[in-house]
Amino acid sequence: MRASLRKGSCVAAVTADRNAVGALKGLGRAVILLGPPGAGKGTQAQRIAKRYELPHLSTGDMFRDHIQRGTELGKKAKPLMERGELVPDEIVLGMVEDRINQPDCANGFVFDGFPRTLPQADDLERICRNNRLGCTIVLHMVVDHALLMRRLTGRRICKAGGHIYNVYNRPPKVEGVCDFDGSELIHRADDSEGVIGERLAAYDRQTVPLVEYYTDRGLLSPIDGMAEADTVTESISRILDGAKAAR
Ligand code: ADP
């Protein structure tokens, strides 16, 4: 039986599907963190990935890796990212499909930063169906713009492990140094005020339509992203524990 996107039929279809191949680790589903830049997607994705033993995928990290390695894809993405614009779908889609088709994603994954456009959402659904994953779980992180600005301008990221800090409310013990691995903390170039405005505008224009797309399919769970990080993790865990129990 195929996992279906029709409301109401999702859980039963997924359960039958997964039982057919035996008990598996992970959730057997794609977990999508949807929200504006600075909503806390990266922080929560890291925590969910650990708790549910799922790979953490981030298109932003994939692009930054390509840029660092100087690949053709990285050369195309770099100027767009520096201006706060989205990378075109045709570049994003091949890269994402290759990653999701890796064996570690067979039992589900947590995606932070994808999908960001309607064609990307359609493509993700196609890939999940092909890979016999259950219905996508979309966690919509809701945060107002003033708080986003503060979070983004204060954000610092560890170079080695991607651990996330904020100089205003989650500083490292030693300034500029990661508590976990001692590596340097960097301020992303696109976390400057000028670029943040464009990133938020791109979000409103191209990504906000996904809220309706996933609501219509009965897949969206709103999350209060203004709360403390631990409180947000608890809200998300309740939803994912429920999904796991229903398998
Ligand atoms: P944030 O969510 O905080 O904006 P990311 O690290 O997810 O940061 O993304 C950084 C940049 O990478 C985006 O501004 C955009 O240029 C590009 N990018 C990331 N994901 C996508 C995507 N799915 N589609 C198009 N561009 C993307």
Mean pLDDT value: 89
Number of strands: 8
Write out the CATH superfamily name.
P-loop containing nucleotide triphosphate hydrolases
The CATH architecture category equals 3-Layer(aba) Sandwich
Give the termini distance in whole angstroms. 14 Å
How does this model look, in words?
The chain is 49% helix and 15% strand. It is α/β, with parallel strands linked by helices. It has a single domain, classed as 3-Layer(aba) Sandwich (Rossmann fold). The strands form two sheets. The chain has a five-stranded parallel β-sheet, with helices on both faces. A three-stranded antiparallel β-sheet has the order 6-5-7. Strand 5 and strand 6 form a beta hairpin. Helix 5 runs parallel beside helix 6. The longest helix has 17 residues.
